[in-house]
Amino acid sequence: MCWRRIICLLYVGSLVGCPSTEPSSSDASSPDGSTPDAGDTTGPDMVLADTGPDLAVDTHVPEVWPPLKGETEWLHHHDGMSVGGLDYNTTPDMNYEQVRFDMEAPVRIWGFNVMFHIPKAGVVTVYLWDDFGGNFFNMDHWNPLAVLSVEVTEEDQGQWLSLPLEEPVDLDPGRMFYAGVIVSGDEGIRLMVDEGIAEPGDGKASATSLIWLSSVPPDAGGFPSLATSPGDFMLEVEIEPIHRVDTADQDFELIGPDVHGISGFSRAAFADVDGDGDLDVMVNGPTLYLNDGNGVFTDATGTWLEGIGGGHNGGVFGDFDNDSDPDYFATGHKSPPDRLLRNEGDHFVDVTPASGIDDTQFLICGEEEGDQPVPTEAAAWVDYDNDGWLDLYQGNFICWDPGMGSRDILWRNNGDGTFSDVTTASGTGKGQIPGKATRGVAPADANGDGIVDILVTNYRLHKNLYYESQGDGLYKERGYDSTLGGSGSSTGYYGHTIGASWGDVDHDGDLDVFHANLAHPRFIDFSNKATLYLNDGANAPVFTDVTEAMGLRYLETPSNPNFFDYDNDGDLDLFFTCVYPDRTSQIYRNDGHPVWKEVSHPTGLVVYAGWGSIVGDIDGDGDLDLLAGGRYLRNRNQASYGSISVELEGMGEGGTNRDALGARIMTTVDGKLILRERFGAHGTGVQDSPWIHIGLGNQPAADLAVHFPATDTEILIPAVPAGSHIKVYEDGTVLGLDD
Asked: What's the Cα-to-Cα distance from 318 to each of 11, 321, 373, 690, rounded to whole Å?
């Protein structure tokens, strides 16, 4: 945001202190993350009054409404010494004075203590506003959570007024909220401020007393006229902690790097690199960590990647030479360039020059103009022609200066270690001119024909591209017809789609998809928000936006989504990271679509300023853990539900690719149809575990139907017991049932 210091103090003439129940000071700010695209400002830390029980205690769960009042606490930011109100000079109308509070856990809001500057007696209205995108200011002023009006006189100036709400407001899930007034006219009643001076800072937690001069038009960049108050507003909120879950009872446990051994990362990919039966991880491309089987990792970069430079932005595993071990494609730009790394069993070898993979094309980048390598932001392995050899889709980005886009490339695996550019011949070049800003590639068999389709998620308000297989190695771009291109045909503006993830969330036997869109509040009228699309199951599917029915809460910066069954009940739940400092992830539990519930607090699954995120059973205990935002969140499986893990291997040439990308497993759990597919990448160019995970709830076993697409082979495996890890080959061999 462009913050403007344009506000002066109107002094009242004397300093006014806090009420006798002065809260004690504590720091309730959130940790910082990466740098946002907007300048923020700093205010004093939040103060939490210790007048009630510990925040981890659920003091009251009402059976009737309105509920009885439990023990409460007071939130505020001020320092206790008021010095006056604010003078808005030449912008006297419709000035929003808001105090921002940020709660990670649910609360019940009962009312306010407020100190007003009162030029003239009258009626003042105090508003309670909900979060609006996690963007440290609420501009959705048409929809307050509560409104409270009170008549005041000049004698009330500088006095603490207690203003209880007629009915309390439950904020569950816990999140950001705002309380304040709208000031109009020179004699408009306004909040008083303290003598603290806010200093410039970084991150949403640093700006707490905020002003929106709504009568001032936005600037040329669309930024509204926002400011931080010279002092903190004299407003307090009475809250009651509700629906709290103790840290020990949350579903996920944060494991520190001193235990798990992985340094910070932005992107990551899982694979069993050394073939010892557990999940290893490559982060940031390429830094390799080997798993000891219990979720403790050792940096093996020096031995496995000796002589291979680092500094890549990510990469994906794929057995391109069909020798049954995972190779790796590392994404980059010029320094370092893209690299194809072949797994030799105990180390990787750079085979890029021999492979022919080279994305050189015309680009203007800074002072360089002409043919040159372009920035690769994401990649995905696919078998686009079902010949048993893994092909590579290379998703290329823009050069920020001057913002010129570049073309993606589909590389066909020739089966001899070399690759050929088939972008034009396959039809995947359509929509690529003059170049897009690819952030992610999410391949999946969306139309169920046994051939992979390719969803390309584009940034910079570009249309997403959905390449649907037509057979014989040909694709048709159906972004508009399918609706996956996004909403924007009338304006030319779509969304900043960062990543996408596929999964059958409604148990109807086809793949649905979630788009994580960054959508700035100032562009909300035309910029696509994060969206859940349901597949209609047709041969040329059309997808329906069901985000509102799902109850997804708008956030500004969703980045990398994951569908995964975190609670082992058979339903795919949804997690996504959010980029920018202090922005928190979200997780929604699927209780049987369309019933979803945001459960960030009870699960303990909270990641700040995240980018890539991946899931897999890191410690081999039968539930899915998560790596995101440099954090390892270990799943405790609080419900103690069972699961099955399935490793798949195709025949290679003449059959399904050796990694079995595109293969599917179907079963039933508690009477619900379960579909899982093996994907080559998702999100921001990251990879979940290669082993398919099926939660069983309390069901002791499941009958599996495994389908290999290239040969149309279906293998039926009855009564696979919970707790099994099995390996299924395309020739019908099944290992692990008797172990």
From this structure: 68, 9, 23, 10
